[in-house]
Amino acid sequence: MTRDEREVLDEMKKAGVPRREFMKMMGGAGAGLVAAQTLMEEQTYAQAASLTGGATAAPAVGVPAVSVKFMVNGAEKTLTLDARVTLLDAMRRHLGLTGSKKGCDHGQCGACTMIVDGRRVLSCLTLAGQADGKKVTTIEGIATGEELHPMQAAFIECDGFQCGYCTPGQICSAVALLDEAQRGEASYVTEDLQNPPKQLSDDEVRERMSGNICRCAAYPQILKAIQKVHQGRPVAQDWGFAGPKHLAAMKEEARHAGV
């Protein structure tokens, strides 16, 4: 019990209000606050009236609202949102685009990466209002109809994912990364800042993808997928458990064992 509550309790005792009644009153007030907060969240995160466009239900009473009009995966969308709604929640809760994942929700894992006007953004740290008038591309918009983007196809061919949770953010980040390289943007490991390389080394790719965490540790395969698209490298699967040296050792062991 806080000092203020103790003081109130003392005053109520003087007025003849029993401690038990005071605790009931405090409990009722707390429940009321929780109920009010829950109601506000439900109103704030109400689903869009239509997933194909149109404004959403009005935000909770007393909460500032913003109207956001943007191009999402090539389609024009208009939403009326609580001003605090992030781009990630706008996509997932209001437009039904659940491909982008909410991982850490602190901008540290990269699972929520989207492309806004050609640049990578962490959508969990980007307010939906900041995307007003811009082009937003989520993982759902990377492919062209039924035809996979080359980066998506490379991730599959190179086995660049395991659980797949981080994969949407990895692919969006990788696609934007190659565009950044073509624009001549430097990274932390770029040696010549005046002339950044447009053909990226493995170290450059690793550094530029360092904001996208893969807890399954599929980093070697992710690197191969990106370089396959970027430099047209042939895919050579050389994992420790299935590489040529490992297979040769297995055959040699089998030969000695008379198998």
Task: Please outline the helices and strands.
Elements: H1 3-14, H2 19-44, E1 65-72, E2 75-82, H3 87-94, E3 113-116, E4 119-122, E5 135-137, H4 150-157, H5 167-182, H6 202-208, H7 219-231, H8 244-256
Parallel strand pairs: 1-5
Antiparallel strand pairs: 1-2, 3-4, 3-5
Q: Which descriptor suits the 3D outline?
A: elongated
Share of helix, binned? 25-40%
Whole-number mean pLDDT: 82
Question: Structural class of the secondary elements?
Answer: alpha+beta
Task: Estimate what percentage of residues fall within beta strands.
Answer: 5-15%
The profile of the biggest β sheet is: 5 strands, mixed
Count of beta strands: 5
Distance between the termini: 75 Å
H/E element string?
Answer: HHEEHEEEHHHHH
What is the compact description of this entry?
The protein is an alpha+beta fold.
